[in-house]
Amino acid sequence: MKKDWLTPEELAQQTGFSRQTINKWVKKEGWTTAPKPGVQGGKARMIHIDERVKLFLKSTRHASEPAAHYRVNQNSLSSLLVTSLQQLSSDEQEKLAALLLREGIQGILQRLGIRSV
Predict the structure, then answer these.
(1) Number of H-type helices and E-type strands within the chain
(2) Parent domain of 39
(3) Per-residue pLDDT at 62
(4) What are the residues whose beta carbons fall under 8 Å from the beta carbon of 63, sequence distance 6 or more?
(5) Are 15 and 56 within one domain?
(6) In what order do the strands lie in the sheet with 33-35?
(7) Which of helix, strand or coil describes residue 21?
């Protein structure tokens, strides 16, 4: 954190937590706060970002881990087909086999709108 004092909203934006979660931690953890200058009513507060706050935020899983980047590997068509066939019941497999024998791959592709006559 580059600033020594942040509003709960600013701290929430930097850490990815909600403002409500930050305010809950302020009370629970006893973080140092001060009234926000220029705001009347006493509710707007600034949080002092000291070592206690930094250590607490690092101890939270969300703030201490880098964002995960997931990538789905493309399955080959043959492994995708085999996996799909294994998911079918015996009855479904028999019906698919009969359809393949009756119509052939050309007929199935035509039914799927992949190949026209």
Answers:
(1) 6, 3
(2) 5-64
(3) 56
(4) 15, 16, 17, 57
(5) yes
(6) 5-6, 45-48, 33-35
(7) helix
**CA torsion sign, 74 to 80 to 83 to 88?**
positive
Number of domains in the chain: 2
CATH of the domain at 58: 1.10.10
How many CB atoms lie under 10 A from the CB of residue 49? 20
* Residues with Cβ within 8 Å of residue 27, at least 6 apart in sequence: none
Average confidence (pLDDT) over 82-106: 90
Helix (H) or strand (E) holding 12: helix 8-15
What is the overall mean pLDDT for the chain?
84
Average pLDDT of the segment spanning 5-12: 92
Residue 30 amino acid letter: G
pLDDT digits (tens, 9 = 90+) for 32-55: 999 988 776 667 889 999 999 999
Please report which helix (H) or strand (E) contains residue 33, including its range. Answer: strand 33-35
